[in-house]
Automatic annotation (TrEMBL):
Residues 4-235 form the ABC transporter domain. Pfam families: ABC_tran. InterPro entries: AAA+_ATPase, ABC_transporter-like_ATP-bd, ABC_Transporter_VariousFunc, P-loop_NTPase. SUPFAM superfamilies: P-loop containing nucleoside triphosphate hydrolases. Keywords: ATP-binding, Nucleotide-binding, Transport. One of its GO terms (molecular function) is ATP binding. This is ABC transporter ATP-binding protein.
């Protein structure tokens, strides 16, 4: 099942291309990590997926249905294409109590699951009678998450939502979200520019660089498919596969290679060693490779 499909989606703000010809498919009921540097286009992509922002060109489908700008999350669409977005600024009414925010959620969403919202708040010990303006940044993030979860989205978009959480809370939140996704009726897409935040979080990866997807896939598959080969200086690695990165010193060459049939295809030629690659290394390798590509995005049309 596909949660989100992008077909040649581009977005231009004036003369700046924020997204350029993005095509990808993201599987349903998973945690998708959307990774990219500042300005890579993550917020823009999430805004388009949520229907808040129109694409300049291309088509985006959620749950198989094209996203139409302005369609609200309670606009009557089928359950499979309901989207909730938690943007960086976490809109909460400062004078509302936490309980008021849940009432607000119930009043503004056609579908509302009070039990789900309440149990999230209980899980993180957020006092219902406290005014939102008196909550810490991390607690406000939890309230916003509870309201988003209460709307029972098929797709929950979290735009750098964990920034205000301490490391313990962050691990707990992502663990709970993974459990909710594993129950089978919600896909979570969370964006970050901090690769270290990712470990153990996303099980599917989408890496954006300067508005283009440079890597997408199941994290385990990606890690299994890539290998680092080090050996005597050579122009090409000693086996099949696409070269993602090549580095040469006087007497030694190192290649990161994407192999056609997983690590079983690794050819260990005399003098060569193979090493697995970590998730951080994999992402950085693709970002570096993309930065060296000739058609970088800065050029405005
Ligand atoms: N409203 C806007 N008007 C003009 N340019 C914009 C606008 N919003 C974003 N941009 C530009 O589009 C590009 C992508 O921005 P976007 O906010 O989507 O990136 P991001 O990956 O979410 O970045 P960050 O991690 O810093 O939040 C950047 O070059 C940004 O300056």
């Amino acid at each position: 099942m596909t949660a989100v499909e992008a077909r040649a989606v581009s977005k231009r703000y004036g003369s700046v291309w924020a997204l350029r010809d993005c095509s990808f498919q993201l599987p349903a009921n998973r945690i998708i990590a959307l990774v990219g540097a500042n300005g890579a286009g993550k917020s823009t992509l999430m805004s388009i997926i949520s229907g808040m922002l129109p694409a300049t060109s291309g088509t985006l489908l959620v749950g198989g249905r094209p996203v139409v700008k302005g369609r609200s999350s309670d606009g009557g669409e089928p359950a499979g294409s309901r989207v909730a977005i938690l943007a960086q600024d976490k809109p909460l009414y400062r004078d509302f109590s936490v309980a008021d925010m849940l009432r607000f959620g119930r009043a503004t969403n056609r579908v509302w699951d009070q039990r789900r919202a309440l149990s999230w708040l209980e899980r993180f010990a957020i006092p219902l009678d406290r005014r939102c303006g008196k909550l810490s940044g991390g607690q406000r993030a939890q309230v916003a998450l509870a309201v988003a979860l209460g709307s029972r989205p098929a797709l929950l978009l979290l735009d750098e939502p964990l920034a205000n959480l301490d490391p313990v809370a962050r691990t707990e939140v992502t663990g709970e979200l993974m459990a909710e996704a594993a129950e089978g009726d919600m896909t979570v897409m969370l964006s970050t520019h901090i690769i270290a935040e990712l470990s153990g979080v996303g099980d599917h990866l989408l890496v954006l660089d300067a508005g283009r997807p440079v890597l997408s896939g199941d994290v385990e598959d990606l890690l299994a498919d890539h290998v680092r080969l080090t050996g005597p200086r050579a122009d090409l690695p000693p086996g099949p596969g696409a070269i993602v990165q090549a580095q040469h010193a006087d007497r030694q060459s190192t290649f990161v290679v994407r192999q056609p049939a997983g690590p079983a295809a690794a050819v260990v030629a005399p003098g060569w060693t193979t090493q697995p690659i970590t998730l951080d290394e994999l992402i950085l390798t693709y970002l570096k490779a993309s930065a060296g590509a000739p058609d970088r995005l800065e050029a405005a049309a």
